[in-house]
Protein 1
Amino acid sequence: MNLLSYGLLGLLARHESSGYDLMLRIQPFWQAKHSQIYPLLARMEKNGLLSSRWIQQSDKPDKKIYMITDKGTHALQQWTHESVSPPVTRDEMSLRLFCLWLADKGSAIRMFEERKRHFNHRIAHLEDYLGTIPAENLSFGSQAFGDYILVQKGLLNAKAGLDWCNMVLKMLAGDVQEQQNPFMLKN
C-alpha cells in the first residue's frame, strides 16, 4: 500500500465513488492521474480492501462505483497509527526562483502576480468551504473536525504565501528600505 492507496481508502470511507470522482476528490491533497488511480483500485479490490458495483447509464458508458470494505476500513485505521513522514515540497515556482537571477524583472513580477492570483483564489475557495462545515460538531472524532482543521491549515498556508508574494513584489518595486538583508522578517 502506498500513500495514494490510503488516500483513496480515506475518500471511500466517507462515501462510495467512481474512479473518476476519486481522481477529482483527491486533487486538493495529492496530485494523481487516472493512470495511477485505476490500477490501485483494481489491486485494492483484488486484495479485499474495497468492493465495486456497476451502475448502468443510458446516456453515458456504465460506471463502476467503489466502496470500502471492513478490511479496507481496518487498514485505514491501522495507517492512522503510523508515524507521519516529513512534508514534501514539490513546487515549480521554487525551482524557478532558484534561477530567478537569469530572468528579467518583468517576468519575475508576472510570476509573483500569477502566484498572488492563485493564493487569492485559494483563500476565497477555502473560506467558502469553511462556511459549509457544521460548526456544532467540531469535536475530535467527527469528520467535521478533520475538515475544519485541514481547511484552517490551507488558509494559513495560502495567507502566508500571499504575504510572501506581496513582500517580494515590494522588493521588486524597490520599496524595501533594508538593503543589507531584505529577507529578515521583523517581529
Protein 2
Amino acid sequence: MTAEQLQSGHIFLLDKPLDWTSFQAVNKMKYKLKREFDLPKKFKIGHAGTLDPRATGLLIVCTGKFTKKIPEIQDAPKEYWTEIKIGVQTESYDTEKPEIFHQDFSNVTEEDVKNALDKFLGEIEQKPPVFSAIKIDGERAYNLARAGEEVEMKSRKTTIHYIKDIEINFPIISFTVGCSKGTYIRSLAHDIGQELGVGAYLTQLRRTKIGDYKIEDATSDFLENEYRFENL
C-alpha cells in the first residue's frame, strides 16, 4: 500500500467494535493513515453506511477517488445478525436506555414467533426510532429525544428480503435478516414485539454483509497502535 494508491482509491472493510460511532472509526483510520503514509490534510476518506454505536460489524471505509463509490455501496442490500428480547421494551429500542414495560410472555409459542416474523417479509411501512440520526427541522432526532422533547417520526417504506437462521430461547430470539437500504433493525425488533403483543427490544446487532462485501473479510486491527496497513 502506498500514499498514491490510497489517494487513487482504496476500500477498507472494518469490523466496528461495540460503543464506537462510525465517525470515530473513520477518524481513527484517517489519523493512522495520514501518519503512516504522510498524506495531505485534505485526504479524502468516508464510510459507506452508518452503524449505531451499540452495533458491531461491517463498516466500509473508502479513500481518495473511491469516496465517489459511497452512494453506490450505501444503496446495496444489507444483512444483519440480530438478537432481540421479548416481554420488555426500551425507549431507544436497544440497550442504550433501561428496560421498561415488562410484560408476561409465557403464552408466546415458537410458532407465534415464526408467524410474527413472516409478517415482516417483503415491503413494509416502518417508523425509525426517535433515537436516530434522522434530521427534524435541521436537528438530529436523537438530540431532541435526549433533551426530552416530543419527537414524531414519519413512516417510510423499506423491504425485508429474508429472515433466516431463527433461534428461540425465550425471552431471547435471534435471526439473520436481509434488508434494503434505510431499514432500522431496532424498529423491526420493536415492531416484532408489538406484533407478539408483549413488546421487544434489540439486544445485539452485527452487520454481516453490504452487497457483496462480507464481515469475514473485515479487520479490527486498525485499533492497534502499532498496526501497519500493508496487510489490508
